């Protein structure tokens, strides 16, 4: 039973570019959330997707957008990259109908902006 | 808005000794609290949660946590530390409105020495 998988594991971009990160949730999970973890910080909630719609959003600018596909997998897109976007991006999943169960996290994508 | 504080950046303990990693929270309504652990270059791994019920919660790998409503604390404990417990520990509180958002503390680095 595969857990949450994310790709790529590492990525290097330059300022102003755009990036797409991908996430496959744990088998059976239908709700996906994205988090940004800057160096030395705790993860910060970006947004959550369920039934292919953004359901909840944290305090991130519109440069951060996402998508969820019918198979529950998800993408995170970041436009006009800034140096401050350098971070570990984590995807988490759970069953929508089991809100008290913990979210399962992937190993993340390490994004470096030059 | 909810918040979590982890007052210690680092905790050092000798192997075999008990350990405590501190966490205090602020949230409107009933708190849903979690502890996660992060090993280098990995995602977050769930340890335990408090939703309701007994104030002493038992989790994975011999860890437990004590919920104290009057002190708004949720300290992580283990009776006998192992070198392999050395990692970064995060306390988190879930959005009480039923959403998916987890608000994390800044993390505590646990170092267990021989």
Explain what this protein looks like in three dimensions:
The complex is a heterodimer of chains A (114) and B (114). Chain A is 0% helix and 50% strand. Chain A has no helices and eleven strands. In chain A, a hairpin with a 2-residue loop joins strand 5 and strand 6. In chain A, the strands form two sheets. In chain A, strands 2, 4, 5, 6, 9, 10 and 11 form a seven-stranded mixed β-sheet that branches. A four-stranded antiparallel β-sheet of chain A has the order 1-3-8-7, with no helix packed on it. Chain B has 114 residues and is mostly beta strands. Helix content of chain B is 0%, strand content 51%. Chain B contains no helices and twelve strands. Chain B is globular. The termini of chain B are far apart. Classes of the chains: A mainly beta (114), B mainly beta (114).
List keywords for this structure.
heterodimer, A: 114 residues, mainly beta, seven-stranded mixed sheet, B: 114 residues, six-stranded mixed sheet, four-stranded antiparallel sheet, globular
Total strands of chain A: the figure is: 11
Count, helices of chain B: 0
Structural class determined from secondary elements of chain B:
mainly beta
- The radius of gyration computed from the alpha-carbon positions of chain A, rounded to a whole number of angstroms, is 13 Å
Quick overview:
The complex is a heterodimer of chains A (114) and B (114). By secondary structure, chain A is mostly beta strands.
Show the helix and strand layout.
The complex is a heterodimer of chains A (114) and B (114).
Chain A (H helix, E strand, L loop, with lengths): L4 E3 L2 E4 L5 E6 L6 E7 L6 E7 L2 E5 L6 E5 L5 E5 L8 E8 L9 E2 L3 E5 L1
Chain B lengths: L2 E3 L4 E5 L4 E3 L2 E3 L6 E6 L5 E7 L5 E3 L5 E5 L4 E6 L8 E8 L7 E3 L3 E6 L1
Parallel strand pairs in B: 2-12
Antiparallel strand pairs in B: 1-4, 3-9, 5-6, 5-10, 7-8, 8-9, 10-11, 10-12
């Amino acid at each position: 039973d595969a857990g949450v998988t994310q790709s790529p594991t590492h990525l290097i971009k330059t300022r102003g570019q755009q990036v797409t990160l991908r996430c496959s949730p744990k088998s059976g999970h239908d709700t996906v959330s994205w988090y940004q973890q800057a160096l030395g910080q705790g993860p910060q909630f970006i947004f959550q997707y369920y039934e292919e719609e953004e359901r909840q959003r944290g305090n991130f600018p519109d440069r951060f957008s996402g998508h969820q596909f019918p198979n529950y997998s998800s993408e995170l897109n970041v436009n006009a990259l800034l140096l401050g976007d350098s971070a570990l991006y984590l995807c988490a999943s759970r069953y929508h109908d089991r809100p008290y169960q913990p979210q399962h996290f992937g190993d993340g994508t390490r994004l470096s902006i030059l | 808005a909810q918040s979590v504080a982890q007052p210690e950046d680092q905790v050092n303990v000798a192997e075999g000794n008990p350990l405590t990693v501190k966490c205090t929270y602020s949230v409107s309504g009933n708190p849903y609290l979690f502890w996660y652990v992060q090993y280098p270059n990995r995602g977050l791994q769930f340890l335990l949660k408090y939703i309701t019920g007994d104030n002493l919660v038992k989790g994975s790998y011999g860890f437990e946590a004590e919920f104290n409503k009057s002190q708004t604390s949720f300290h992580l404990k283990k009776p006998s530390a192992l070198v392999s417990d050395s990692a970064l520990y995060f306390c988190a509180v879930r959005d009480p409105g039923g959403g998916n958002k987890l608000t994390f503390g800044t993390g505590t680095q646990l170092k267990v020495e021989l």
